[in-house]
Amino acid sequence: MSNARTEASYSRLQHGDALENLLHEDRKFAPSAGFAANAVVGAGVYAEAEADRPAFWARQARLLLDWDTDFGQALDWSEPPFAKWFVGGRVNAAYNALDRHVENGLGDRVAIFFEGEPGDTRTYTYAQLTEEVKKCANAFESLGVAKGDRVAVYLPMIPEAVITMLACARIGAVHSVVFGGFSADALRSRIDDAQARLVVTADGTYRRGKPSPLKPAVDQALTAPGHSVEHVVVVRRNGQDVDWVQGRDRWWEDTVGAASAEHTAVGHDAEHPLFILYTSGTTGKPKGILHTTGGYLTQTAYTHRAVFDLHPETDVFWCTADVGWVTGHSYVAYAPLVNGATQVMYEGTPDSPHQGRWWEIVQKYKVSILYTAPTAIRTFMKWGREIPGRYDLSSIRVLGSVGEPINPEAWMWYREVIGANAGNHGEKKEDPAPIVDTWWQTETGAQMIAPLPGVTATKPGSAQVPLPGIAIDVVDEAGASVPDGHGGYLVVREPWPAMLRGIWGDPERFKETYWSRFEGMYFAGDGAKKDEDGDIWLLGRVDDVMNVSGHRLSTTEIESALVSHPWVAEAAVVGASDETTGQAVVAFVILRESAPSGQDSGDATVTELRNHVGKEIGPIAKPRHILVVPELPKTRSGKIMRRLLQDVAEGREPGDATTLSDPTIMAQIAESLATRN
Ligand code: PRX
Fold first, then answer.
1. Which atom of ligand 1 is nearest to the CA of 538?
2. More confident residue, 554 or 5
């Protein structure tokens, strides 16, 4: 991490107007007496956890999970930053998510209501899902997948994604899910880094009513000789024709479908790797974040229960995240099932075939807990309150937010339009559903900061309080805790059960990235502020990571993609604020002589470069705008001053440019952009 860049962003956070506005938020919404009385977690939990954190987590681990072998020490922190939780314990994630519920007489409870984009539906009870996972585990074993082997998963939001993940967990194979929006190149680098033995994919999926292919990207990713993949299992989802490699490729229905439904789960060590999930960091190369079994399951299950006030007998939970992201791992594939809850899984986009699709789903399945991202909420705001107003959303009793800061306007809209809706004739609830804004990361594995809906008086726009058993702080440059009313860097002071155990294959990078900025503390990469009550407000990243529609992207990674194009000499990428998506990718490029020139070349060049980024990383990373400039603003030591580019991208007069090696550059850029437009 470049400290100079961190500090520049940090000082912006300190002085931004938005920050001052945030601190003037004085609305507070206390839980109703009725909600508090029935809440699964009460106020006493904070003191209980504070008294002895490892002991608190050990109690949760035994309460929420069935262990094959009980553990001894709750936490071994003798070799920081490498933690071991629940030492010596053995536990099987799939058994905990499935078999035990069937054994406990809950086999007929619905585990997943699946809604496909074209309107096809499937319902899996716990008994049925258990059977599918057992078959899948047998099928993977018959393909030679053994404990510790890596399995790449490149699937749409269909039940087979969850089945695959749990089958891997069952046999101790390590899944590495790659979001379907990533390109063949991105998939290839992830397969190579993890040395995956098996890939599970589908012929395709549906996007806005149209079939959209997936398998061609896998085929393309596996064209290079010497890759590690032996087999590709293909789910038939949309019936598209696919190329076939004899011997390597197998249809899911012929492999999993034909396998035996008898499979006994055995416990794996609490620290056995559960999955790798690649995420963007401050360098060009994505990091394989490694999570292990016991601690991850404990904290995901605990937070799912406490933060959403889960009553598994009656609630219907819907987390709208794709399984390709950590939210879909923790709060679709694992926690809801470990907790024996009923959940909805939806394949498509919110506007397909109409802008009321989500609310139709909430009404149809009587969703009681909805967990989504601020980008989605802001999109619905744009579409208008009449749309959700046409549906009966009275089943909703808790609303969650995740992935990016939620602005107070979006928070209030969420509360009033979704949380207070008591029927499709404009009826209003007297007691709207509480909103829980949850801060966490791929690295933290589970929620870390969030209100407890039966305890905390919530404030629009703030994630507020560290969860019980989690030691969060906001510190200054020197690592000292800032007083209330001040801002700084968000850190975690003590190890937590679901923390990442490392970066796949790169222990040094793990130490350097997260544990070197502040002695003995985990540095999250986020700026934060404590308000006068000590509540925490998240202020966005202070490093080179952008957050576009809740998706995490690296400026450096996109810059590398751009300069890998023969026309590009230099590139600088910034995340410009955007009303709906939080941030948007804006790229500044200097072209080489070899790039086409002339009057009409501009648009064609930009299209070519956008597509190139799409090919290198994936459509989600395509810059919103690419601005061709004659020079980039650099300091005398050659550092690009992104702050000035950010000003340009956000339509402001550029700030102080006196440290530039050539102070006329900003004027040159402005002139070149003016003549182009
Ligand atoms: O900047 C924070 C933002 O998302 C980053 C983590 O991204 P990712 O690993 O993709 O995980 C996203 C889903 C857990 C964080 O460093 N972020 C996440 N949740 C919030 C948030 N920013 C503000 N408020 C949140 N609730």
1. 23
2. 554
Give the bridge partners for 292, in sequence order: 273
Closest CA to 457 of 434, 474, 437: 434
pLDDT (tens digit, 9 = 90+) per residue, 158-207?
999 999 999 999 999 999 999 999 999 999 999 999 999 999 999 999 98
**Residue 515 carries which DSSP code?**
H
| CA nearest ligand 1 atom 8, residue | 441
Contact between residue 110 and residue 340 where contact means Cβ atoms under 8 Å apart: no
Give the pairing of strands 435-438 and 522-530: unpaired
Query: Residue 667: what pLDDT?
Result: 87
Q: How far apart are CA 180 and CA 186, in angstroms?
A: 10
pTM of the model: 0.93
Note the pLDDT of residue 639.
84
- State the pLDDT confidence band at 600, using cuts at 50, 70 and 90: low
Q: Determine whether the shortest distance from the Cβ of 620 to ligand 1 is under 6 A.
A: no
Mean pLDDT for 381-397 is: 97
Is the CB of residue 282 less than 8 Å from the CB of residue 554? yes
Contact 346, 175 (CB under 8 A): no
Rg (CA), the chain: 25
Task: Determine if ligand 1 sits within 6 Å of the CB of residue 237.
Answer: no
Asked if residues 71 and 61 have their Cβ atoms less than 8 Å apart, the reply is yes
**DSSP calls for 370-393:** EEE-HHHHHHHHHH-THHHHTS--
Residue 21 has pLDDT above 60, yes or no: no
Ligand 1 pocket member 442 (CB < 6 A)? yes
Query: 120 C-alpha vs ligand 1 centroid, how far in Å?
Result: 32
Supply 378's token pair: 């802001």
Give the whole-angstrom CA distance, residue 364 versus residue 371. Answer: 17
Q: Which residues contact 241 (CB under 8 A, 6 or more apart)?
A: none
**Phi and psi for 208 in degrees, rounded to 5?**
50, 50
Query: Is residue 11 pLDDT above 50, yes or no?
Result: no
Query: Considering Cα of 528, then 533, then 535, then 540, what sign does the dihedral take?
Result: negative
Return the SS3 of 649.
helix
